[in-house]
Design brief:
Four copies of one chain form a homotetramer.
Chain A lengths: L1 E2 L10 H9 L12 H14 L4 E5 L2 H12 L4 E6 L3 H4 L4 H4 L4 E4 L8 H13 L8 E8 L10 H13 L3 E5 L3 H5 L8 H7 L2 E5 L9 E5 L8 H7 L8 H12 L2 H22 L12 E2 L2 E3 H7 L3 E2 L1 E5 L4 E7 L6 H13 L1
Parallel strand pairs in A: 1-11, 3-4, 3-5, 5-6, 6-7
Antiparallel strand pairs in A: 2-8, 7-8, 9-13, 10-13, 12-13
Protein name (chains A, B, C, D): Threonine aldolase family protein
Pfam families (chains A, B, C, D): Beta_elim_lyase
Organism (chains A, B, C, D): Salinicoccus sesuvii
Chain lengths: 343, 343, 343, 343
């Protein structure tokens, strides 16, 4: 079985394991107070070109719930696309800390500034608005769950709506490397740091064993984040493990190099489908591609390959999702292309 | 600086890093559904001699809050020693999920069955008991925060009080290896599995990079634990990392071997203090020792060694805490012993 | 200004105030342990024809959150129509206690058994169901927010789906008097007690100053409800006030008599609209009617009458909501009818 | 049975019932938006001599949890005497909204500024303070659970400690009328409004059917309180009921007059005990008195009177609590005095 079902099917980039090995016997303080973590913080600060706060956490659900807990008062809710990870794939983690996810209909994973504007104005124009959760932040992902990208223009408009309506903007960057490496992308990491109040740079899906680097850009919400990390179970005892991994990923641009590799692998697969004139459910811009196959074609491929069936598209046709990653090798891609051609 | 301030100052046992390296390119499903994790579960089940459920989480606070969330209804509280980790060192994690920690006065980190009995009977005898959190579980640690051990007899009596009062018994085993390896210990892991409803086997402080193996022995509370793990941010995407580590720790008894080493290192230090006729704050039975030093002695040692100042003992004397671990080497211990002799 | 905007615009039925006056100097224990409350409990038990537990609370949001808190584990969610009170009009009260409201599209305020079946089966058929809140109860209202009624057949089918899928069924009966008094109704209060696990009988909107009688019919969820009432701030110190009010409402059928009056008043208004051939947005079966008016007609009426604009229906036409209640008098209805005729 | 066991054993002052009767048919908007509530707000604002926000809630637990929810971030805790109502008599309501109650040892119900200072400094001086709940507010009661009073000087010192340590000061005034009416009192309501950030004026125990007037004096924490009231189930549909009651209590000083009556009744009882040379457990300054009786004396009195046994005082002697209130009549007091003389 060759797996294209997710971007976290293998361990970590070899350089990370090597560095963990080399630093293994260093005696260091815990909880992210070691010098590796400080170095990683500095790399990310430089990358963002801003005086941001950086905290390292082990996973995305943990990062999402900690960030949102640190920013909202009890009666406030978070606007998100109904396809967003916090809306549907975290077992109600956001509700478990007391906040309603205010879902807007997604369009290939995205929501538009205008939708946010309408929702927020509807809230404030309702004379009974005190009887509804108050929208206070917008959560989006770059790239989205559907592998699509917000353009610089789209993000800027979201930022503007947020600013005018006193909302925070949060970007879930669990796969942000694959956004930054995409040919279709026009949003730099400095743009992201400038446009949102908080975001995170995903390691779990981009070369690390695990880890997300939370970046807080808004001065107002910087205070006491570490207390809340600890309270929500997100402060790793051996914080060095996170620091060292992000140090390796960012000291020489490894993060960007391996992200680019994933994109190239996805592109090779996309071309193979294109040659067979197999339609895509959404434009293939990042490391996820969504070809629309017949049930028969799906049955054929699934004997050898692991992937997700994404959504029905008419009768007996379905979009599937194939993920490449930093670890995808040419051999596996060659094998799949060969089998695509035979479909 | 030589560090004796905690048992998580270094990375992981070399065998773990090697195995992570060897398995790095295996393509495996996420979230603990891989075969390594299954193997680790089996090892622990065999060790406990019972049909327990085993779940792997990254840290202790996370394990504590997830276990307690899965077991209590909203109005129920958890009895714990006032020195317990959940009482004082998790930034209110248990309160953050809605439950009051009902603190009992500790005696060198321990609470007695009789104390629990008195507290629970006081609750039920109070005519206004509906106006107070209902005690529903007892949380203790083996070894305790003070490095002491519950005897088999003490644990059995706690179990009996719990059974008679319809309480769950939970054991935090973040350092359980060091309890099991102690010469003073008469409680086996089978005893623990038999006597409590849930406990965990700590990896973070005993040779792993990170990880706690939660063991649920009570059939009633087994259901849906994975939902709550996910909700509380405690389900690692690459669950294999936890499975592989516990596989290594338990396939050939490594866990016990390295725990024993830590105990031997602690013993060497304890003997050095004894030779100097320096008193201990609590009996030195596990990997933590608590010599009582003068302020001058503390000042001398702290130029070269990292350790915690634990508690004032009379005027200008304080108990300090020195931790050994799986990673403590003879060289560091030799150096410290030499300096103890010079005190 | 004559108010038809809600069914809680006046105080209480005169008999209630009189009884409060008469009993004012009785010295009674607090927290619902007095004999009036016991009598009220007995009346309701007799009415339901079953050995139910009865608890009195001051308001609907409070009742909803307390009931749901007492029934769900942390990872479980509650299915509700998207028009349900808990979905949109309680400032996220259910999320504030940790649970996601799993919204289904309403049809004039109602959801169908088949919708619930599809949602629940979708959950369990999803291989990643542990990453989503687990549906564990269904919340509906009788009558609904749109004034419509579930038939006995519809309720029975919902009950069957719940039973087959191990879900609780909860009925919000804030206006249940107006359902029971409706000519279109074929569901008795015994039916309700038999078909659901928990429901409540609203007093606030049906003649009382305030108060909802929570009725728990399922043995499994009866335990410790009073603890949770107290914790959620819903245990009234002078519980007698609730007991006395429900005693008056149910000792001689006052509740049913005044509910019937409200229905008659609504019917008179509905007929007046019918005579003018003004269409209804939803069938007028209870104390709420929803005529569709032009913007000009709305402007005319709102100079003299208070009511809610409910929803746009095409261009420059809107459904409005007019509420009658136990307190609506013939004079106010006559005045409005006269003005309807002039439209 | 004559009841001296609490100050909420009867209904309400007659004037309140009369006013409810007179205003019963007024058609008014809900949720505290009516003119009676506005008038009551104005009275309280004038009383406080400051531009405070005033909100009316039905009970103390509800008020406490709503106030604290509105003021704290998730990782923050509230300092309280261990005898405080939130510490021991609200079934963990504060923990249920996520916050730890940081208990300090009480001295006859009170805590001193110095205790707060020590606790807060201990927090900030601990290098691991991020692993503990951050103290952010101080909760006290005036009068305390033990019927004692803070002096102006004591309150001023608490305020100073709070100001210097960036803590909020909250005063639970469930029985504040009895504090203001006490001869031992030197703290006016203007003092309270000036010294704390938020407090409430209790109605439930001082003449109303129910109701607490929450007074927010600190500008920073005024925003959005009504959202949180609604979310926590504390916004009464017929808010008029609260407005009308506080209107009656404060339009002509009724609140102060009936409070004074309770104090006089308590004083008569205290004198009777004094004449018998029966010692008091705490000074009898408000409406609660705590004579220390032998078990035999207690047995005698309890055949005719309801009261609480408060605490053991040596062998076979106990302090009991007798409560007077706005509703205590001379006849009942005469009867008890007669029986005290016979002891």
């Amino acid at each position: 079985m060759i797996r294209f079902d997710s971007d976290y099917i293998e361990g970590a980039h070899e350089s990370i394991l090597e560095r963990l090995y080399e630093t293994n016997n260093e005696q260091l303080p815990g909880y992210g107070m070691d010098y590796h973590t400080d170095t990683a913080r500095r790399y990310i600060r430089e990358l963002c070109g801003a005086d941001v706060d950086v905290h390292f956490m082990t996973g995305g659900t943990q990062a999402n719930m900690t960030i949102i807990a640190s920013m909202l008062r009890p009666h406030q809710g978070v606007i998100a696309p109904d396809s967003g990870h916090i809306a549907g794939h975290e077992t109600g983690a956001i509700e478990s800390i007391g906040h309603k996810v205010l879902e807007l209909e997604n369009s290939h994973g995205k929501i538009a500034a205008e939708q946010v504007k309408i929702a927020v104005e509807a809230h404030w124009n309702d004379p009974t608005h005190e009887h509804m959760p108050q929208p206070k932040m917008v959560y989006i992902s770059q790239p989205t769950e559907a592998g699509t990208l917000y353009s610089n223009d789209e993000l800027t408009r979201l930022r503007d709506v947020c600013t005018h309506n006193n909302l925070y903007l949060m970007i879930d960057g669990a796969r942000i490397g694959y956004a930054l490496a995409s040919e279709s992308n026009d949003v730099s990491i400095e743009d992201i740091a400038r446009l949102c109040d908080v975001f995170y740079i995903g390691g779990t899906k981009v070369g690390a064993l695990f880890g997300e680097a939370v970046v807080i850009t808004n001065e107002v919400i910087k205070s006491d984040f570490r207390y809340i990390m600890k309270q929500k179970g997100g402060m790793l005892a051996k914080g060095r493990l996170l620091g060292i991994q992000f140090e390796v990923l960012f000291e020489d641009g490894l993060y960007f190099k391996i992200s680019k590799h994933a994109i190239e692998m996805a592109k090779r697969l996309a071309q193979a489908f294109e040659e067979k004139q197999i339609e895509m459910y959404a434009p293939a811009t990042t490391n996820q591609i969504f070809p629309i196959l017949t049930d028969a074609q799906i049955d054929t491929l699934k004997t050898e390959y692991a992937f997700h069936v994404w959504e029905e598209v008419g009768a007996s046709r379905k979009a599937i999702r194939l993920c490449t990653s930093w670890s995808t090798n040419h051999g596996d891609v060659d094998a799949l292309i060969k089998d695509i051609r035979k479909l």
